Sequence to fold (94 residues):
Amino acid sequence: MKEVSKVENKLLDRVEYVFEIQSSSTPSREELKTQIVKQLKADEKLVSIQEIKSHYGSQTIHIIVYVYESQDVMESLVPKHIAKRNNPAVEGEE
Fold:
């Protein structure tokens, strides 16, 4: 997994990353999150995968990730549907 860009967004108390991987199939969010947490040495609860982009015919996949400073900031900024995607255990609670 290669880090393509890193932007510190101080206004929103987060760091925004774009990663690129080469794969013949799109990995699951859980697999990607595990790799990203290891690479960034970040708290898993503060990492939010926003988007996974792959183009037809290409083996390059781009992943947009936000790492927040605190749980409170993350909860106030991340849309509910994105939070559900990033935390599969939350889906069954509703």
